[in-house]
Amino acid sequence: MKTRKPSARSSSPSSSSSPSVSPHYATTLTQQQTLPLFSNMVRKSSLFKQTLIATLVFLLAIYALFTIFFHTPLPPSDPSSDDDDVEISSRDNLNFPLKQIDGSGIAKKVKVFMYDLPHKFTYGIIQQHGLARGGSPVADVTSLKYPGHQHMHEWFLFSDLVRPESDRLGSPIVKVTDPEEADLFYIPVFSSLSLIVNAGRPPGSGSGYSDEQMQEELVEWLKRQEYWKRNNGWDNVIIAGDPNALYRVVDRVKNAVLLVADFGRLRQDQGSLVKDVIIPYSHRISAYTGDFGVKERKTLLFFMGNRYRKEGGKIRDLLFQILENDEDVVIKHGTQSRENRRAASHGMHTSKFCLNPAGDTPSACRLFDSIVSLCVPVIVSDSIELPFEDIIDYKKFSVFVETAAALKPGYLVSLLRKVPAEKIIEYQKAMKEVKRYYDYTHPNGTVNEIWRQVSQKLALIKLMINRDKRLVKKDLSEPNCCCLCSNQTGIISSLR
């Protein structure tokens, strides 16, 4: 029987009996199998690119449409404009601009008109002051010299506006002679000098001058003025530097911007930081011109002034009792006189710290004497308001001590002895940087800063004028204080 050979079909692929294939045929077969796969990949890649491009084109079209129809372009910049120019923004189109803007987009200076007051409210008061001290009448009162005292700010502001405009370069305001052009109206009454014409003289020994009568006559004169009546006094500015100046009529002029040393004599509905301007006393002692340092300042704490005051100033007598026997402390009773001013100048120039307690009201001229002396002020007055605090940080050169703490025996002296010399020198440098703000004779000093502060009130003044037109007049049983009030309850922290 013959044995049948197994079929190649039934044998294993790895079997040696498998039919052989030539290399050329194998290569051709592989290429034929790969081509359809590669062709599919090329078609898919091309479709992806087309989709991606179409998507990008669509997004760009949407962005272009949004830019054209919804985006507001910025106004073109003027390459010739200065960095200090004020750019006009959309809010400048409001009826109540935050700044005065002219057609070029640059902030304009506020225009101030000074009333031509009858001489009895200005130079006539200087004459009355002289007559009460034995002087003789003069034919031309405008030749009289204003007497020196701590409330000379009224004279310096008056003198500034009397000068030709060409001499007022650098001033933050413009003086105008046509009231129709003015934004604000200045009333240059010598209210503080009027207050002291007969000061310290018994009834009947003076010139017959009456400060109260002057105040009443001033109000009557104002009531006849078109530019007072037009806006009920809101756009007028009046100075009452002495806390008691215009005390009789302040309720009738309180709408005006008041230039005051503090709010000690004013009710909350009469004066506030929002409406009014705190101004510095005119310093009465010579400024210190030496170098920084503590070597020549042998005294730790110095005070020279009236020991006995009313109201908040009663703290002075208590501080005298606590401090007068302390080592390195000089505390003396003294009133205003040329000799006492010389003694005070020497004392402040040779002391590290100068005590500044409250007077009859929260402020006193001694603070500003201290600053120009580079004698670090130690302020013990819980309700004090300070001038120019939008640009001056008093904590950089002053020590604030709460009244209750200052009256603890030994506390104040102990506190000051801990201050290192380096810190005192740091205070002195800070005082030197700002002392021009307390110099009424400096070309860019106190006068310019007061006018800058006044000009900043213009927006609020316009608000009050417009508001006043629509308010219903009411008889109130209590004063209405609808703005920020002065510091009556604030706590002053001590040196840390």
In short:
With 496 residues, the chain is of the alpha/beta class. It has helices at 23-70, 123-131, 153-162, 191-195, 211-223, 226-229, 250-253, 315-323, 338-349, 366-372, 403-406, 411-417, 421-434, 446-455, 458-470, and strands at residues 110-114, 173-175, 184-187, 236-239, 257-260, 277-278, 299-305, 329-333, 351-357, 376-380, 399-400. One of its GO terms (cellular component) is Golgi membrane.
Topology of this structure?
Blueprint: H1 23-70, E1 110-114, H2 123-131, H3 153-162, E2 173-175, E3 184-187, H4 191-195, H5 211-223, H6 226-229, E4 236-239, H7 250-253, E5 257-260, E6 277-278, E7 299-305, H8 315-323, E8 329-333, H9 338-349, E9 351-357, H10 366-372, E10 376-380, E11 399-400, H11 403-406, H12 411-417, H13 421-434, H14 446-455, H15 458-470
Parallel strand pairs: 1-2, 1-3, 3-4, 4-5, 5-6, 7-8, 7-9, 9-10, 10-11
Protein name: Probable arabinosyltransferase ARAD1
Membrane topology: Single-pass type II membrane protein
InterPro entries: Exostosin (IPR004263), Exostosin_GT47 (IPR040911)
Distance between the termini: 125 Å
Biggest pleated sheet: 6 strands, parallel
Number of strands: 11
- Indicate the radius of gyration in whole angstroms: 40 Å
Number of helices: 15
Order of helices and strands: HEHHEEHHHEHEEEHEHEHEEHHHHH
Strand order of the largest sheet: 2-1-3-4-5-6
Strand content: 5-15%
Task: Kindly state the percentage of residues in helix.
Answer: 25-40%
Give the rounded overall mean pLDDT. 81
